[in-house]
Amino acid sequence: MQLFNTLTRTKEEFIPLEPGKAGLYTCGPTVYNYAHIGNLRSYIFADILRRTLEFENYDVTQVMNITDVGHLTSDDDIGEDKMEAGARREGKSIWDIARYYEDAFFVDIDKLNIERPTIVARATEHVPDMIDLVKRLEERGFTYETEQAVYFDVTKFPEYTKLAGQALEEKITAARAEVQEDPEKKNPADFALWFKATGRFKNHLMQWDSPWGMGFPGWHVECSAMSMRYLGETFDIHTGGIDHIPVHHTNEIAQSQAATGKPFVRYWMHGEFLVVSGGEKMAKSAGEFLRLQVLTDKGYDPLAYRYLCLQVHYRSKLNFTWESLDAAQAGYNRLKAFIDVASRARGTEQPWVQEYRDRFRDAITDDLNIPRAIAVMWEMIKEANTRKELGILDALFDFDQVFGLKLHEAVASPDQQELEPEFAALIVEREKARAAKDWARADEIRKELASVGILLEDRPEGTIWRRSSQSS
Ligand code: AMP
Ligand code: ZN
Fold first, then answer.
1. Ligand 1 center–CA 341 separation, angstroms
2. Residue ranges around ligand 1 (CB below 6 Å)
């Protein structure tokens, strides 16, 4: 199985640390607001990765964090605390805010048929692990302390810019352009491991005791502490959106490797952004954004959104438009309609299907080429229709272990499944005639089937049939 590793910028053969197992860490949501459909695209990508590993028979342990400790509106330790801003906006306690949005997040995850992580780790429940990590870094001489915080000194870690492939000078210049709120910080790229509850954070709502006094952990330290806790000091795969490459994941690598002296993650994988109106990224901090709920309120199936995401490779931008969602909904309906019809025909799988199974596997193991896998699926359906051999349901359901489109639910009810193959083929032919607006042919087929006691009913999700009472 080939995966594109951001660390080396090449597709590499996936070789797990332990044969047959895969440890996967997925950067989870900051729960101060609802997830938007861009965030959800990132989790669909991680889900596809997990399902593909499972399809390839790996025993996967997936860990996801819930960032319920404040993290600042900028990745670079500046701005206000996102969680506290959310609590103030809604007049709720910060703990209520966190639980409310965590629950809302999992409602969306379930609607999109994203498998729940094996372990969900809340930052607020792992603060001692984070303190331990900061202590280890302190003992090994990678930190310094100011009035405001404990910082990681990036100049002590020579590989700091490896993941982003950016020169440290560039990064420092970029960071310097932003407001620096701590005059004692030595280097603009240094990042806080622990914030002290003094000065601007005196009234910070979430505080814990630590060797550096009351305070709270930096955001980056959360993911290092929690991933290593559950997956070990070196583990297989870490995912996130591409925005995490230059700061969050760069910092995770620095603090983890500096603390353990071992490589942290073997394969770094990053999902490209969903963009709207000509390239703008969707961002929570920008105010306006689309939630999954907005899509379902307009009558779209959440899985039509999932289907849309499957049609774009995870390393390409997805330009979201309502037209593209309409097309995805129509395609998903066509797929379910085929399954409904094919489940009534009950053919057995013929040898020609194997080629499609092989091509499907080639696609998904080629750095998760799901768009190609979807194309393979449609080609297989086309060939089944042409041959009038509809026995491809098992293959479709196997593919759906990766797609996650709940295709099983489109199967017709048992009393409807005993249609003779030649009649099933006629229904398929009529579907095609209807799609081509050949109403005359469609009508002809309807009459032909009626004459043998099979009545058709056209529904938005496809055509269903039943036997007329006279014929039985
Ligand atoms: P957050 O809750 O803001 O930490 O983001 C959750 C995940 O969504 C992270 O992995 C981000 O990289 C990712 N993300 C944020 N914005 C987008 C977007 N417009 N498209 C795709 N992924 C995104
Ligand atoms: Zn993270």
1. 39
2. 27, 29-30, 38-39, 41-42, 240-241, 243-244, 271, 273-274, 281-284
